Amino acid sequence: MPIRDADPTDWPAIWPFFRDIITAGDTYTYPRDLTFEQGREWWLLTAPGRTVVAVDDDGTVLGSAKMNPNQMGGGSHIASASFMVAPEHAGRGVGRALGEHAIAWARAEGYRGMQFNAVVEANTRAVALWRSLGFTIVGTIPDGFRLPDGSYTGLHVMHRPLR
Questions:
Q1: 3-161 classified as CATH 3.40.630.30
Q2: How far is 27 from 118, CA to CA, in rounded Å?
Q3: What is the average pLDDT score of the chain?
Q4: Model-level pTM?
Q5: Do residues 53 and 10 lie in contact, with contact meaning Cβ atoms separated by under 8 Å?
Q6: By three-state DSSP, how is residue 150 classified?
Q7: Which CA distances in Å does 129 have to 66, 123, 155?
Q8: Where are the domains of the chain?
Q9: Direct distance between the N- and C-terminal alpha carbons of the chain, in angstroms, rounded to an integer
Q10: What is the per-residue pLDDT across 103-121, written as a single tens digit (0 to 9) for each?
């Protein structure tokens, strides 16, 4: 599956699934009322970050990932990333392809590890995917995420060494 750098002309194709995922409110800590412009500003990164899209053979955007240093300064040697797959393309390996791509990018850029700061515990598909790609849960913030129904679930911090 081709994965390429995203550019601003991709945002109108990313926005519908980005908006739906954010609005659903069960996997991301983003505000549920982000506007088109705010979402674009948060998702389409510039160096040292990078945003990519996974596309079908006909150019249809299937999903997207953004990759960046997890922290600034003394923590900038650890990468982070976020991923979104259009729900209608779930189950096709898009998330795995984007995850593998992000790991390869981080390794090529010289990062020593990759850390996800807020993987929603109830998002069992994502947790299973990241574990299958070598991430471990290094800690869980109990009740760190409020689900749309008002109940709470944990937020995992997940890490994978790259060296």
A1: yes
A2: 9
A3: 97
A4: 0.94
A5: yes
A6: coil
A7: 17, 10, 16
A8: 3-161
A9: 26
A10: 999 999 999 999 999 999 9
